[in-house]
Structure formats: structure tokens, C-alpha cells
Amino acid sequence: MSHPSYPPTPQNDAGSGVPQVPAAPYAYGGQFQGGAQPGYQPGPASGPYGTTGGAVPAKSFMTTWILALLLGGLGVDRFYLGKIGTGIAKLLTAGGFGIWSVVDLIITLTGNARDKEGRPLAGYLENKKKAWIITIVVWFAGVIVGIVSTVLSFTLFAAAVQQGRTTPAAPLPSASQGPLVPSPGTANEANSFTVDVDDSTKVKVGVVDSLYTNEIPSMSYMKPANGGFLVVEVSWETLTGTSFASSTNFQAFDADGKEGELLFLTEDLGSLPMGSVATGEVKQGVIAFDIKNGPTKIVVTDVYGDEAATFTLTPPAGQ
Fold first, then answer.
1. At what angle do helices 61-71 and 99-109 cross, to 10 degrees?
2. In this model, does residue 220 exceed pLDDT 90?
3. CA-closest candidate to residue 288, choices 193, 211, 206
4. CB under 8 Å to 51, separation ≥6 — which residues?
């Protein structure tokens, strides 16, 4: 009787005749070598402008550049990059007296800036050209402003020095033109008269002295258009109420009725002080007109600009 044939049976080391299954390569933890291990996940992609280990994103080039350009002297760009220590040092030294700020800005513009983790800044390639152009424009504008400021500073300083060396202007010369006769009905004593400047305010106007001249000291640049300058020293005393003293309270007309041009004198020439005058107070100073020499009618106006009183100045014979 024939029996079916079987493939040869591998023998074990003990020669028992029991088939032996070849053992799979064994690895630590019961896993097959070369096989996927439980829980294993591929790591995130990393690159020059990506993330590392799935942590914090890379710092922005545009933000770093703007901070370095505008606030570099305060170290804000380094604080942003996480470099707190050097940021504080930069702040306390005002950007390394400006040198550190410029160096950091150039490092940023050339793409060599790194954050605390040593990573390049994101967005550099896309924005470097724009950043360079804007930086150059800002630097150029700063140079122009600096030059203008320096020139103005030197000009003002030179003017101040020159003013300090200038001899104070001499006061107006005094030379009487003879009797000063107020208009009839307005004088209450020699060379003075009372004026009603409004319903409740009375002032006493006095004429102290007068002078006709072709030039006013320290104002030689002014040339008379009508022959010369009439300078009158007046007093202004408030009798009732509160008045307002000013050279604009006076007008002058020559013998032909042409109005003279009122001049605004500087304080060092003793111009009539402008301001409120309370009851009993007196202000005294000079007023001046560009007017033809000869008999001159002086008009005192009220608060409405209307004629309130007049007096006439007559030059001495022969003038």
C-alpha cells in the first residue's frame, strides 16, 4: 500500500522531527525591525523661512526692519527678536550712540539678522528691495533736514551775537518847535486839553514836545515820502473811567489837508505805550507821522474812530 509523499520535514536541533517556523527578526519592544512603530509621525517640514519643530513661527523681516529704522535707538528691534539682554544694552546706550542702530539696520537689510533661535527672518526675499528704497529715502531726507537745521541754528546764533554787540539806539533828539496851541474850546490849561473818548470816559491829552526831522535814529532805512517826519511827545491821563492809550488814537493833516502816514516806532525810541489806562494813571511817549513840514493839525479820536478834539502844531519861523 502506497503512502502519500510529504515534503521533507525540517529537523530541530534536538532531532525531534517537529517542523520549525523560521523566527522573524526580533527587535526591542517586540517590533519587527524595519516596520512602522506605533505612534510615529513624520516631523514637520522645516526650512530657512518655515518653522522648526512645529514651534513659534519665524520673526517677520518687515516688522524687524521698521522697528530698526524708526526705533532702533531704543533697542525695540532686538526686543522683538527676543534678544532682551542686548535690547536693554542698546536702550541704555541710545543705540550705541547711534552706531549700533545703524549697524543693526544694515544687518537687517542685508538679510543677516536672526532671531533668538538663530532663524532667518520671514519675508526677506520678497521685501528687501522695497525696504532698501524706503531706507535710502528716509536717510536722504534726514540729511537734508539736518543741514537746514544746522544752517538755521548758525544763522540765529550769529544774529543773537550781532544784536548783543549792537550799540543801543539813541533816543529821539528833542527840539521844541515853539508854542503848541490847542484848538479853541478844547484846552483847559497850556498845551493840554480834555477829550471825551466815550460817554463815561474822559482823558487829558498833553503835548510835551515836538520835532520835525528827516531821519529817525535806528530806523534810517525809512525814507520820508512827504518831506520829513513829525515826532510829537504826548501824555495820556485818564480822568474818569478806563481808557485805552495807543498811537492810533492820533491822526495828522498838513496845511493842504493831506493825512500824514502814522509810523509805528520801536520801544527803544520811547513810543507811546499801548494798553489800558485806569483813572488817575498817566502814560507818556512819542507818536510820529510822515508828513510835509508846516502847520499841522493833530486829531484825537474817540473809541469809535471819530474826531473828538484837535490841536495845531506850528513850526517856528524860518523852518
1. 160
2. no
3. 211
4. 44, 57, 58
Distance of alpha carbon 253 from alpha carbon 312, whole angstroms? 9
The grid cell for 308 is 473828538
Q: Name the residue among 269, 286, 287, 290 with its Cα closest to residue 217.
A: 269
- What letter does residue 2 receive in the DSSP assignment? -
Dihedral angle computed from the Cα positions of residues 27, 33, 38 and 39, in that order, rounded to the nearest 10 degrees: 110
Q: How many Å apart are CA 75 and CA 100, to the nearest integer?
A: 9
What span, in angstroms and rounded, lies between the C-alpha atoms of 104 and 59?
15
| Residue pair 246/271 in contact by the 8 Å Cβ criterion | no
Residue 62 has pLDDT above 80, yes or no: yes
Residue 218 DSSP label: T
pTM for the model: 0.44
- Whole-angstrom distance, CA of residue 27 vs CA of residue 29: 6
